[in-house]
């Protein structure tokens, strides 16, 4: 075993041990779409006096955090998004009405003089002398107080803190500190209250939050009339517990929102839907992975089995990375994790196919030498294809929203982990196996010493695919025309995420058909609602503008017909956010095309880059057109699938053009059409074997994933099939046609060293250098 192999083996063992430790000692963070709960996106708005910027949004977030803590929600998550948006996640909250009421209101904190106790039944009618509405509110003990107008607002409070006064035996107290001008108003207010005798209701000062008295302390008897309390020396005392004192300090300090907020997005997922999604994804992962492992073991024998071991290691490493980095695992992210299992086989397939070519070209070559050359020659294609996928993942993260970001993170981690498993773990295992005399002597055992059946058939038939490249472009254009016809004739069914509105899915204890549900809801005043079935007999209702009270009334009307009605899923998107998400989706697609074009233009000839992008656009249009013909919704999950298709499509094209560049550099006088034909035939086994791995996972997701994952898997299934076609019959013919317009010379066979001498080839690790 060489030193390099030993280093790889030790590194692989170390990473695996750390990954196993993390997996056993840490739990994943589940998104709300998996554990159930409510997610809201709040838009901060400018008020008459305050602009909604980063600073005021941060202060608003802290106030909201204090309010939500009062709801008793376990582990709520509040984060700022951009300059003026706040994301609120409330696990296990299924009825968002209370949360929306607490979050959405702009609380008003004010300080009032107490005019006296109000007799029971006092009508808060306008006062005849001022015309102002009388404020009659109960104090902490329920006594009705007649309050004067507001003398000071919450904006004047600089700080409020709870502390324990052991020396004065006052127990828990709340200290108040005011801004300069507000401090003067406070001193004046308390000075006027101090003019009344001790025990008199008028000696109290009422602190009111949203027309509720949260505290009404008496001014201490030691304070003289018109003297008042200084700003920094005010204490509210009472029989407070530690919690009560802290809560009062929080309410006084942060009771009022600096700026008003509007709920622009709200999603609620029932706990059963998340549990079903986890179970379905787990089943799909196990079945798909088992099928993939069986497939690569049959195709590549011993080395395929070792690649399966590396694939299992990939699963452990990527899971540990997700858990260790604290990534929130969402439903699309879970699907991405499962999908990456199938795509992780790609690098191993590339290496094994290159090693097969080396063995076929030189049958007497040692197995270790062929394997080492396979890793070396496949590296550029592996790197390029994974970088294009990482670009797609980056676009998902930066331009996606909500759960789609989670898919981008999961996909990126999966790509990095798959490269490590293929180039380090699988290489260490296969190099150790290749050093065995038994594996080297029995060529049918190792799986790469003999060409596969697909390669043998292609070598025997030797089809000439690109004598007339234009005819393939005509076929691809016809497919695009059919897709465009679907978009024009049937239209694109944009999901509520892109149009705005509300989509609610209910499960009823008694079966309710669509017509019955439609007539029932129409009678209840929801005649414009779109009613469809979802899942196992569930009812899906899509409406325009519908607030939480309206949703509650809708559910009650449905319950009258279907018995006990449970909300399975609830999505509310404001019209402004819908427009923004739709605009961002188009930007994401445009940026994806430009970024991939720029990268490919740097790595390859411009003709190859344009051909790859042409195939990518071809795939996008056909997938969108297929969804239009099928009447499937186009939403954020579909966008995630579409950007993944872009990465996969470019991945396939990169492998083909990488081989074209290599062969053309070695045979510069051979016609490009012949070179391209040879490159395609050499890479077809890799394309078939990689596609089979991904297709097995996706079929399992489509069949077992339920409604939540079916459309995602369907889009990827169509995209992979079409992408396989376009990488051969769209990208390559387009590049051939474009090459007729350029006079650029063929690529050079290799780069020279700085001294101008050709770089010596790397020696076979098993070669000791001796020659006879």
Essential attributes:
772 residues, alpha+beta, Multidrug efflux transporter AcrB transmembrane fold, Alpha-Beta Plaits, Gyrase A, domain 2, 5 domains, eight-stranded antiparallel beta sheet, 20 strands, 58% helix, elongated
Topology:
Blueprint: H1 3-25, E1 29-30, H2 32-35, E2 37-44, H3 54-69, E3 77-81, E4 85-91, H4 96-104, E5 109-117, E6 135-138, E7 144-153, E8 157-165, E9 171-178, H5 180-193, E10 205-209, E11 213-215, E12 234-240, H6 242-254, E13 261-269, H7 271-324, E14 328-329, H8 331-343, H9 345-361, H10 367-399, H11 403-434, H12 437-441, H13 443-446, H14 453-461, H15 469-489, E15 493-494, H16 496-499, E16 501-508, H17 514-523, E17 530-534, E18 538-543, H18 548-562, E19 565-573, H19 575-603, H20 606-630, E20 633-634, H21 636-666, H22 672-704, H23 706-729, H24 731-739
Largest sheet: 8 strands, antiparallel
Q: What would you say the CATH architecture of the largest domain is?
A: Up-down Bundle
> Which parts are unreliable, with pLDDT below 50 for 5 consecutive residues or more?
751-761
Physical arrangement of strands within the biggest beta sheet: 3-4-2-13-19-16-18-17
Please bin the fraction of helical residues. Answer: 55-70%
CATH C-level name of the largest domain: Mainly Alpha
Radius of gyration: 34 Å
Total number of distinct structural domains: 5
Supply the number of helical segments: 24
CATH T-level fold name of the largest domain = Multidrug efflux transporter AcrB transmembrane fold
GO cellular component, one term: plasma membrane
Subcellular location: Cell membrane
Membrane topology: Multi-pass membrane protein
Pfam family, one: SecD_SecF_C
